[in-house]
Each structure stands twice: as structure tokens, then as C-alpha cells.
Amino acid sequence: MPSGGEEKWVLPAHDKLPKGKKLMLIILDGWGEQIADQFNAIAVATTPIMDHLKTTAPERWRLLKAHGPAVGLPTEDDMGNSEVGHNALGAGRIFKQGAALVDMALETGSIYEGEGFKYLKEAQPNGTLHLLGLLSDGGVHSRYNQLQALLKGCADQGFKKIRVHVLTDGRDVREGSSLDYVTTLEHDLEELRKRGVDARIASGGGRMAVTMDRYENDWGVVKRGWDAQVLGEAPHQFKSCLEALKTLKENDPKLNDQYYPPFVIVDDEGKPVGPIVDGDALITFNFRADRMVMAAKAFEFEDFDKFDRVRVPKIKYAGMLEYDAEIKLPKHYLVAPPHIGETSGEYLVHNGVRTFACSETVKFGHVTFVWNGNRSGQFSETLEEYVEIPSDQGISFNVKPEMKAIAIAEKACEALHSGKWDQVRVNLPNGDMVGHTGDLDATIVGCTVVDKAIQLMLEATEKVGGIFLITADHGNAEDMVKRNSKTGEPMKDKKGNYQILTAHTCAPVPIAIGGPGLLKGAQFRTDLPTAGLANVAATFINLLGFEAPKDYEPSLIEVVE
Questions:
Q1: What's the predicted TM-score (pTM) here?
Q2: Is 302 exposed, middle or buried (0-12, 13-18, 19+ CB in 10 A)?
Q3: Active-site residue numbers?
Q4: Which residues form the Metalloenzyme domain (predicted)?
């Protein structure tokens, strides 16, 4: 049980919605609302349950904003993502998120004045500064303009030797765009060299093959990064990053930017130009936490047994942000993350609400850790249970697009029928994870299976006389083609093929409520047209029979006579 004065945690009873109704809370990952054309995997998929909810009870179905300022991101052009989405869903308030915080720190120069950067400068004058992260403008994990500013700022701060370890994207940005990003990076590094800074790319690889695994799904991904970045060892060696990308793509035309194998840049004598060694400094410049935590553990933990690191350099390491506040990882960081406390999970535990949460590995952390304000563990060992179903390993998600949706639904039904839990919370990852592969047909299959999983959970809700709430964290599967920014028409490449979109979107997401336990007059309010994900927490707290905390975004529901 969390500590603190109990009085501040007490939630008054709702004046109209009763306590005691079981709640099934379903998060559809990557499930937005968009033009219902052939590139909308959700519209093409067979989804009778979601279609029924939308068409038969319009007063209990609506759209929510899931991008930009509604989830704490800087502008309306910033697409949502699973981390900021689940933060907003679980916390009930809007917090400035990674990208906005980093932008502010770079703009004001405060990033160079904090303890984190001062710690890095202890590697001067002889240590090399290494920058490791996703080369992308996607704004989900990183942004290229931030890397540009950081490169210039670090040079201004006296670092004379800089090495960049590139992770290519093709997921949050257009597939094939990595060549453009690397070309721009090479130009920026050339400008630094003109200033007398020895600045080069040292290694690279695709984000899904190198370094950026999460939730300890596959430590082999992190090991491949470690071998290239620290040991200077990889199956491929090239004189430049551009040569690496072009050659690897020529050898395998179907190779996606996300899956470039690890490679090392070498000099004329075949020696790596920038392995991380004793006395160096390292910044992991991704601002999003989930796909940096594992690498941070490898660089920071002395007691580490996930793979043989062979050589552990004594370096000054800092993350762009603190990636895990609970375990203080990493110890040093450049920008302080938002403090997200007093989340819905913590309030519900203090009010005796019993919660069961479940997803498969790739999204388990979102429906628990991220939901709880980036806090590890449970608030209560007796009032909460978190169950992780292992995700498929060693294959791309389009190979088995069904993923574990049915298994998650079955666990949720079992939990609800047990009578032990007041709230059952799940995340169904298919729309996001399969959508990111760019395989439209597979994503359609994934969305069809999600609807079948929803059916199972709604049937269980019906049997226990409960209530359901279904929503999503951001868009993805609803639009899988790149569109003309002015006309909205699908775009084709020079060969006449449609340009596949693998990124998240700025589309709104649905929310639906229902079930036999829902009061007859309960419906969505019509006076919150710009409501977003942060309004959901107050909504499900109401459905559980409580008034929401006063500082939460307003509930979406009202009860009419």
C-alpha cells in the first residue's frame, strides 16, 4: 500500500454511479479513426463488435485526441505514441513530455548547466564523446533537430572528438528515409570538422535489430549493439555509413530500415573509428524511455548477467532523460523528466479497488509501468496483480499478426469471472506492432483478431453484469499509406508503388462504454469537444463509483434522467 496521509487519497462516492460494478478496461494499441479506404486496416478488417458499438449507441461512442498538446507533446504536428498515451490514460492529467522538455532545455541552454552534462565533461580533455540513438524526425523516440543542436552544443562545450552511433528508423518515419538522414548528419559532422572537431559516425544498425529492444524481450538485440558500439565488432564493416546502407540494401532489396544488421565504420587500416573505451563519455539521446532502458542497464550496471559484455569500459554515461525513476536509471541524465505522481492506480489502491492488468511482453510495460507514471512494480501486492504473456520472439510481427490477443482476452475473462478483481485492464498490441511492419494484409488480420478478443471480453462483462470501457492510445493501423499533405491522396514512388506508412498518426482514437452494469442514463457529455486521453482516468474512476480527483481532467460522462 502506498504511503502518505490517507485523507488526501479518499475519493468521495459518485452521487449517481454506484460502486460494486466490475469494469473491463480495454486499450487498443495503435487504433485510430481515419478515412475508411483500402489503406485503413481497421476499416478493411472484419470488426463487427467495434462497428456495432459505433453505430448502435452514438451517445456512448466518441473520439478523443491522442497526439500533440493533448498528451504533452509540443505541437499539433507531433504524433502520439504508446508512452505518452498510457501516461495520460493512467495519470488523468497532461504533463509536458520528453520532446517538449528537451526542446526547452536545448533552447535555453540549461541542458549544459545541469549536473548530468557536468558529469560528462569530466571526460575532457582526452575522452571521446559518443552519441547513441535513433536517427529520425519521428518525434516518438528522438528528433533530428535535437541531435543537431546537441552536436553543436557539445562542440561549443569543448568536446574535440565526437562519435555518433546511428540507429536507423523506417518505423516512425518513411521507410527508406535513413539515407536522407545519414546524408544530413554527414554534412553536419563535416561542419564540425571544419571547426577542428574530429566528428564521425562510428557504427550503425536498424532499431529493431540493434540496441532498441524493450521489456527484456530479446537481449540479443542489445548485445548486437554493444558488440558494435563498444567492442567495435560486427558482421559488416564499411568505410562510411552511407556505403553501409547502400551496400546492405543492394545485397537485400527487401531489407527495411528498421532491420539493418549491425555494422562498424573502419579506417583505411580496417580498424574501428570509434569504439567506446575507458575515459570516454556517452549520451543516449533518445528522450523516450522504453527502448533505452535495456541498453542503459548494460552501460551502467556492474552486476549484469544478461550477456557477456567481454569488456566494460569505465565511462561517463548520461541519458537524455532518466529512463526509469523507480530504479534511478541512468544515474546521470541531461533533462529532468516530468514527475508523474498521484496516478489513478495509486488512488484506486487507496480506495480498496482491486485491479488485474495484463498484456503481452511488447506492451506489458505500458499497461503497468507507464500507466503508473513510469513507476516500476505494483502499488499493492494484495490489491493488484500484473500478468505478462510472453510475446513471440525471433520473428517480425507480421509473420504471426494474431500475436497474443486471444490469450490476453482469455486471461482477462478468467480474472473477471474469478470475482477477485473490481477492474481488469488490458492492452491489445496488434494494431500498433503489426502496423509498424508496413504489411497491410497482416495488419488487417491483426485487427480482425483484436475484434474477436474484444468480443470475448464483452461477453465476460455481460455475464458478470459489469461495465466496459474501450479506447486506444494513439493511431497507426487506420492509415498505412503516405499521403499528400495538401490533398490527402495516397502517394506513389517513382516506380508507381504506393508509399507504405509504418509510423503512428495524429488521428483521433475512439472510446466506447457500455455493459449491463452501466446506468441507463449514463452517456458521453457533449460539452468537451476537444477532450483527449487524459479525460479517460476520471471517466473510469466514475464508472467504479467514485468522484475523480479534483485536479484530473474532467470526466467524459454524465448521467441524464
A1: 0.73
A2: exposed
A3: 82
A4: 21-547
